[in-house]
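User: Please predict the structure of the protein below. I'd like the answer in structure-token form so I can feed it into my own downstream comparison script.

Assistant: Understood. Taking the following sequence of 459 residues as input:
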Amino acid sequence: MDITIMAKEIIKNLGGKENILIINNCMTRLRVTVKSENAVNFDNLEKLDYIMKVIKSDTLQLVVGPGRSKKIAEEMKKYCGTNNNEEWQKTKEQIKSKQGKMAGILKSLANIFVPLIPAIIGAGLLNGIAGYFQNVYTVEGIKELPLWITFFQTLGGGLFGYFAIFAGVNAAKEFGATPALGGVIGAITLSPNINLFSKALGLYNSEIPLNSILIPGKGGVIGIIIAVAILAYLEKLLRRIIPDFLDTIITPTISLLIVGTLTIFMIMPFAGLISDGIIKILSFFILSDGPMAIIGGFILAASFLPLVMVGLHHGLIPFYMVQLTQTGAISLFPILAMAGGGQIGAAAAIYLKAKNNEKLRNIIRSAMPVGILGIGEPMLYGVTLPLGKPFITASIAGGIGGAFLAATKVQTIAFGPSGITAIPLVVPDKIVYYILGLLITYFSGFIITYLFGIPKNIE
């Protein structure tokens, strides 16, 4: 079906363009905020054959599959016009009042980081490929790297080197601050001049710089999100008391001066303590030696599919960034990536059992390739979740793979899609363990599902 027709059908069933406030997308989903859910025809949406699942929350999520989500979103934006940001901000408090605190926090984090996912994937893969070959050349004793590796590192490093700025801009959009000012707040946290302030105030550890209370990047995206939330509050307050003819000059100047000062001298050190605490917790559960790492890896990976189910998994991106900026590598991402592998094994078992269910086998055939590449939503909403038991067995299998990766201390140098696509992102001397983890997860998903997870009447 033509993308334009799909977009118009979705808009119609969402209550028309007048009912649509915000249109966004991630790899597999359209994320739409509407004025009134009463105007949405959920029954018709769920009947559309190109929509795998409709998830009802403050932001409606329509799972349409990889590639297609971006095309439909762009077409819908053409038809609906620009996002009505003022009206969106007016309804934000009403939306938040319907959420639990933790769900609301994760939703806000997802709204900040979901638009960055295409850049994260592209930059992460380029960084991963460059990192792998850099290590190969280093092992072989070649000191002068080929120029193409430096080129890939330049392309990939553009995002991760200045991630703070992108996070600041998107946080400003989420909280209702001026996006450019949010970007400036993010940029402030990267300034090398912060070291001068740190030394002047006695907050710098010359022997172990990373242990300093105040250094560039300390606190990472956590500090930026806190700072931009304060920026949004201050901007709104100033605009209520400053005359309109002075607003353009006075409001951004005062906002930047106050929030910039708070960011450098209070928020960054405070967020740094939070980041250090997160690293200690992750180290205790998945970086320690012995049973605790295995138990922690199992629990984390086994609980990931339920997060994907409700669209909250993108809220974990700040934790990836904390690990990346604090330690130079990420252990949480590869562990959670095992969850998708459990679905592959489960789907293979179902395919083998459902010999006479051609409709189900066709869904599995279409979802399996993208699932192996690390995009699990088509398999989740088309196969494991609707059947029930395979969702549980796939989660258990993912936990087994996560336990193995935690035990073998697998880490990545970036994050992006999971599955085999993540192989270039893995620290080179751990690639074999990552591949073994995938195979263990596939095999576990198949065996557990074949023995205990096959629903009745699917043959």
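That's the full token string. The first strand starts at residue 20 and ends at 25.
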